[in-house]
Amino acid sequence: MTATPSDDEKQKVWTAYREGKPIRVPLRWNTNVRIILLNPELNPDKITFEQYFSDPVTMIKVQAMHQEYVATVLSKVSDTPSRLPDSWNLYVDNQNTYDGAYFGAPICFEEGQCPSNRPYLTEADVDDFLKMDFSRPLENPWLKSRLKLHKELITAAKDFVYQGRKGKVAPFRLGFDGPVTIAAVLMGSDFFSLFGADPPKAASFMRKIIDAVIARNRALVELDEKWTKSSWGGLADDSIQLISTAMYEQWVLPLHEHWFSSISDTTPSSKRRGIHLCGDVQRHLPLISRKLGVVSFDTGFPIDHGRLRKELGPEIEISGGPPVDLLRYGTPDACAKAAQAILQSGIKAGGRFILQEGNNLPPCSPIENLAAVYQACLEYGVYDR
After folding, report:
1. CA dihedral angle for residue 42, residue 48, residue 53, residue 56, rounded to 10 degrees
2. What are phi and psi of 251, to 5 degrees?
3. pLDDT for residue 3
4. Does the predicted model carry a pTM greater than 0.85?
5. 89/98 Cα distance (integer angstroms)
6. N or C: more exposed end of the chain, with fewer CB within 10 A?
7. How many domains, the chain?
8. Residue 151: which of 234, 90, 199 has the closest Cα?
């Protein structure tokens, strides 16, 4: 068994990767507070997501616990530093409910699950939605309530100390989970019925969502600073796995381009764009890379990593790894073999691969399984010099 690298050795791996001179594939685990809240051993007080969402003291405490766990436990099985941060990074956490909630979809808290939105629009509601005015985002009731919580977090953080460290609350910001995904959040399967029957109206619905999100996110930035376009374009849209590539190219790709060009100073030729896409999306990725100039793909499963490298070429960054159900329920041997197979598939060609889970580490994943993947990375992730 290969010894766990020191923090200095891990840093060298990441530095070499970023400089385009990789010495080994870096490994990271993408996590959030669900690995604390949904793991009885790590959550002895049985804090629920509903409590976490509403109580500022609970929110910042759980966030500190999560960051502690990453630094003290997950760092032993990844290329994450093993030292605690100088201060805790605190923020208003909305999980993946924020876009849906902003547009009026109720938030559901189910036992043993992350919060989610309940679809509430039907095809009959689309015309009225298209007439709605989203030009004053700071008057949105849900957004006002979360901005209020942000102020409460700042107050709570003044007296908060955990493991001898205080914390700092980040400015309130929101991302975007993508037009197809949020259309599905708002309408459920009705959206895909609409998409099949009336693609132009479905596209108008998604464009309305995008423009409202752009206005919202810009208004939030301007609460603290002058808004400017980013030098990097980022997006997610997991639900494109549910449509054909032909439909994606005709109706959704132009919307993705609208998003990228609206929030960043990038173009397809600038090669400064990335996208997160979970699920069965591999058929779309060559088109997205070619037409949108996306050079970094954060993937889930199923993915044929060796074939994807051949399809995209050596210069494209790909992040991915064993499916999350294997990491949660498999054996260490099975996890190690899956990681080895990925690393020996040809994915390393070009030196632009990051090993991780596919995608977002499940609660209660056995450390033995994660250690097995890391050991495989240390052995089979090395580049020939």
Report:
1. -60
2. -115, -30
3. 81
4. yes
5. 20
6. C
7. 1
8. 90
CA atoms of 208 and 206, how far apart (whole Å): 5
Interatomic CA distance for residues 56 and 313, integer angstroms: 46
In a domain, residue 253? The reply is no
Mean pLDDT computed over 324-330 = 98
**Pair 116, 107: CB distance under 8 Å:** yes
Residue 316: pLDDT band (50, 70, 90) is very high
3-state secondary structure of 314: coil
- Whether residue 327 lies inside any domain: the answer is no
- CB-CB contact of 157 with 92 (8 Å): no
pLDDT exceeds 80 at position 385: no
Bond before 302 cis per omega within 30 degrees: yes
**C-alpha to C-alpha distance for 40 and 43, rounded to whole angstroms:** 5
Surface-to-core class of residue 46, CB atoms within 10 Å of its CB (0-12 exposed, 13-18 middle, 19+ buried): exposed
336, burial (CB in 10 Å: exposed 0-12, middle 13-18, buried 19+): buried
Task: Kindly report, residue by residue over 117-148, the tens digit of the pLDDT.
Answer: 999 999 999 999 999 999 999 999 999 999 99
Is the separation of the CB atoms in 258 and 292 below 8 Å? no
Does residue 29 belong to any structural domain of this protein? no
Using CB atoms within 10 Å of the CB of residue 290, give its burial: 0 to 12 exposed, 13 to 18 middle, 19+ buried: exposed
State residue 350's pLDDT score: 97
pLDDT value for 271: 96
pLDDT tens digits, one per residue of 15-34: 999 999 999 999 999 999 99
Classify residue 296: in a domain, yes or no: no
Six-digit token pair at 290? Answer: 């070619």
**311 Cβ contact list (under 8 Å, min separation 6):** 282, 285, 286
Determine the Cα–Cα distance for residues 65 and 383; give it in Å rounded to an integer. Answer: 35
**What does the pLDDT average to over 169-179?**
98
**pLDDT digit string, tens, across residues 269-284:** 999 999 999 999 999 9
- Relative to beta strand 167-169, strand 88-90 is parallel
Nearest C-alpha neighbor of 239 from the set 177, 312, 167: 177
